[in-house]
Amino acid sequence: MISVREVTKFYGCGETRFQVLKDINLTIEEGEFVVILGASGSGKSTLLNVISGLERPDGGTIFYGETELSVLSDRELTAFRRDNVGFIFQQYYLLPNLSVDKNVRMGADLAHNKDYRAMVEAVGLGEKLHKFPGELSGGEQQRVSVARALAKRPRVLFLDEPTGALDEQTGRQVLSYICTLQKELGFTIVMVTHNLNIAEMAGTVIRMNSGRIAGIQTNETQKTAYEIGW
Questions:
Q1: Beta-carbon count within 10 A of 167 CB
Q2: What is the pLDDT of residue 143?
Q3: How far is CA 13 from each of CA 17, 21, 23, 151, 211, rounded to the nearest angstrom?
């Protein structure tokens, strides 16, 4: 379980200092699929960065079970991210001089996972192990980033606009892969998106507005990637 209590975050200093997150309180249960919605500048990506340990809050606490992130040293926080969380962004961040196999293996090595090729198969790229990113379509590159993130065997998968650069067909396919793998492996999903339709896939939807949580809703029925609008 992730527990966020009274979290605040500021950017800038002096007269340019402004508050991005304002007294955020939320709880994310293990195995949940959570979507964070909000307009540009609402604080949704900052919230994801703070919850995941990429950035430190300026106030409040974040617990993963009994582990409090705010008291960890930089080295301990790096180790925590390595051992517990995976990231998928709109940009693929693949190393262009490494094959699909070696890009995914980078994530797997962090978890000493020798079965990482099963993850490549799971995202439908088993026949492209030795291709380089420049030889793949955008959707295929995003699937490589999915496989790399999940090859770490994370407890929580954080996604920031993962379908933002994809066409509808490819976006649906990538989301379907992610949800199928979540059901098989049981990890938690926390996804930032501007796509209101994707929110229908989540169990919990958090709406951000001006740095605050404007509302939290629960979907009694979660749609699949092929049932939602686009």
A1: 13
A2: 87
A3: 4, 15, 19, 39, 18
Is residue 175 helix, strand or coil? Answer: helix
CA angle centred on 54, ends 105 and 100, rounded to 5°? 20
- Structure tokens that stand for 70 in this block: 């705010």
Q: Which residues of the chain, if any, have pLDDT below 50?
A: none
pLDDT of amino acid 16: 85
Q: Which alpha helices (H) appear in the chain, and where do they start and end?
A: 44-52, 74-84, 100-110, 117-122, 138-150, 168-185
d(CA 77, CA 193): 26
Which pLDDT score is estimated for 151? 87
Q: Residues 128, 129, 131, CA angle at the centre, nearest 5°?
A: 65
pLDDT value, residue 184: 87
Name the token pair of 44. Answer: 């949704």
Which residues, listed in sequence order, are joined to residue 3 by a DSSP beta bridge? 27, 63
Range 29-33, long-range pairs (CB < 8 A, 24+ positions) = 29/1, 29/188, 30/1, 30/155, 30/186, 30/188, 31/182, 31/186, 31/187, 31/188, 32/188, 32/189, 32/203, 32/204, 33/179, 33/182, 33/188, 33/189, 33/191, 33/201, 33/202, 33/203, 33/204, 33/222
Task: Give the H or E element holding residue 165.
Answer: none
Q: Determine the pLDDT at residue 198.
A: 94
